[in-house]
Amino acid sequence: MDVSPTLSRRALFLAAGAGTLAAPLVFSRTPALARSAEDATDMRASPIEMRSLKLGGFRILAVRDGLRASGDPSQTYGLGQPAGAVGKLLGENFLPVDSFVNSFTPALVDTGAEVVLFDTGMGEGGREAGMGRLREGLKQAGYTPDQVSVVVLTHLHGDHIGGLMEAGAPAFPNARYVTGRTEYDFWVNPERMGTPAEQGHQSVLAKVQPLAERLSFIEDEGAVVPGITGHNAFGHTPGHMIFRVESEGRVLMLTADTANHYVLSLQRPDWEVRFDMDRAEAAKTRRRVFDMIAADRLAFLGYHMPFPAVGFVEKAGEGFRFVPVSYQLDM
Asked: Structure pTM?
């Protein structure tokens, strides 16, 4: 009897049992106790972290591609705010005031007919630093690279396109690729040479342009596959997009880099962020997107949110309160 690859993978998920699906999956190496802050964010000695979630008839798989410790948060968030404002907000939320950790979480959506990967992590270039673990995570979950049918690029920053190529060849050989036309046109334009965007331009030429024959472009409210639509969310980059995933009346918003910190970007959405290319526009987009998510009580997955990067928001004070997912998407 012929059995479709997608059904076989979903059977694998279901056979694991609801209890397994409700928790991060732990595999292979035995974790060692962290001896320092650097150890704590070095994933080379850590097991892969994954979380499988149910969204109607779809399965969502979040894979932690890596972690990176960073320095003074006030050099990245709350630019132009009074001295001490960033540290004060972090302290009120039980977080260190002098450092922060950035997490990277690509997501796979298995619709039953298509296997759609959103962003590709750091790839081989990040592995020396203990990142670039997406392929490893997909394998542990029962997916092979050739089973990915669509790769969606929310935008073309290096931590989202780094895993497109592997040893000089497409990492997902049977996939077609989707990104926003505004985003692509900006990064491939040779006018980026000699500007702060030059490194990103060169990265897109190396990672994305070789896939041009299989690359298609999406506009605002365009469909990727049935149940998945793209929406403009410009500011972080010139063509940054978010995606609405809907099945059987349940919705998850993939917000990519609209918000990059669960406290500093959400509780103070109007604060400007160094990562954002158009900081004022990004702040407007952040408030618009999370106003909608809060009003409609939608789940969202943010690429840099605390793993498994999924949660909810409610309006609170000047912005929003982040509510991490527990078991809402296991049922």
From this structure: 0.88
Cβ within 8 Å of residue 53, ≥6 positions away: 21, 59, 60, 61, 62, 252, 308, 310, 325, 329, 330
Query: How far is the C-alpha of 295 from the C-alpha of 307, rounded, in Å?
Result: 24
Tens of pLDDT, residues 115-128: 999 999 999 999 99
Give the tens place of pLDDT for each residue, 67-118.
999 999 999 999 999 999 999 999 999 999 999 999 999 999 999 999 999 9
Rounded Cα distance, 136 and 174, in Å: 18
- Rounded to 5 degrees, what are φ and ψ at 128? -60, -30
Packed helices 198-207 and 181-188: angle between N→C axes, nearest 10 degrees: 110
Other C-beta atoms lying within 10 Å of the C-beta of residue 110: 24
Residue written as token pair 């005031």: 97
Low-confidence stretches of the chain (pLDDT beneath 50): 1-35
The answer to whether the beta carbons of residues 58 and 227 sit under 8 Å apart is yes
Among 298, 294, 261, smallest CA distance to 276 is for 261
In 193-318, which ranges are E strands?
A: 215-218, 223-225, 228-232, 241-247, 250-256, 272-273, 299-302, 310-316
Q: Please return the burial class of 146, using the count of CB atoms within 10 Å of its CB with bins 0-12, 13-18 and 19+.
A: exposed
| Prior bond of 170 cis (ω within 30°) | no
pLDDT at 44: 61
Which residue ranges make up each domain of the chain? 5-324
Q: Are 323 and 314 in contact (CB under 8 A)?
A: yes
Q: Which fold has domain 5-324?
A: Metallo-beta-lactamase; Chain A (3.60.15)
Q: Helices (DSSP H) in the chain: which residue ranges?
A: 5-15, 18-21, 37-40, 85-92, 134-140, 158-161, 181-188, 198-207, 279-296
